[in-house]
C-alpha cells in the first residue's frame, strides 16, 4: 500500500526484547532503520518491555506532538491489550496527554499482508519440497494469559489453506499449549515438513527452544549472533525431512507491514472524521 510520509509525526515501534538473548531486539532496530531510510516519519524510535529503552522512557525520546505506536508483536493478546496500554498510558485508539497525541495501531502480526510473508519464507527455506508432499507448520508461543494470543496464528493457517499455495496440510502449533510443536512428527502425515516460527526475532524461543522441541538440537544452543552459520536444511529426523526457517519477523519486508498498519489506522479513524 502506498504510504504518505509524515514528516511532522513520530513512529514508536514497541517490542518485547529479552535480557537472555542478545539477538532479540535486532529485527526491531532493523525495521526502524528501514523506515528511516524510506523517510516515512520525522522520527522513528524503538522501546521494549524487557530491554532499554523501556516503554516508560519512550515519551522522553520523542519531540513530535503526534506519535504513532505500532506493536511489533505477533498477536492481539496480553502484551498488546494490557501491558503496552498500561505502560504508555494509552486509553484507546487515540490518546491526548501532556501535549502529545498518541495513536495506537493493531500489532503487525494480524495484518493481512503477513500471509504473503509466511508463504514467501516457507518457499525460501524449502525451495525443492513439493507442497503436495509437505506439511507447513506456523508455530507460536501460546499462553494461558490471554485466549486471543493464538488467534493470529490460527487465522494465518486458515488463510494459507485457502490461498491455493498447494500445501498438503497447514497446521498451527505452539510451545506451551496444544497442539504442541514437540509432537510435529505425529501431527504431520507427509514426508516433508516446513516449520516457520511466528515470532518477531530469532531469540530465545525460535532459535534456542523450538529446535530442541523439534529434535534437531539436543539442548538450547548459543544465540544466533554467536554462531558462524545459520542452521542447515534439511534435517532428517523422526522419519521425515524437516525444514526450519528463521522467525518471520526477521523478514525485511516487515517494515512495510508496520507502515501498512499505520495507513490502515488512518483509513479507519482519521478519514472517517
TrEMBL record:
CDD domains: CbiX_SirB_N. InterPro entries: CbiX-like, Sirohydro_Cobaltochel/CbiX. The keyword Lyase applies. It comes from the Bacteria. Keywords: Lyase, Metal-binding. The keyword Lyase applies. It holds the Pfam family CbiX. PANTHER family: SIROHYDROCHLORIN FERROCHELATASE, CHLOROPLASTIC. This is CbiX/SirB N-terminal domain-containing protein. It comes from Luteolibacter soli.
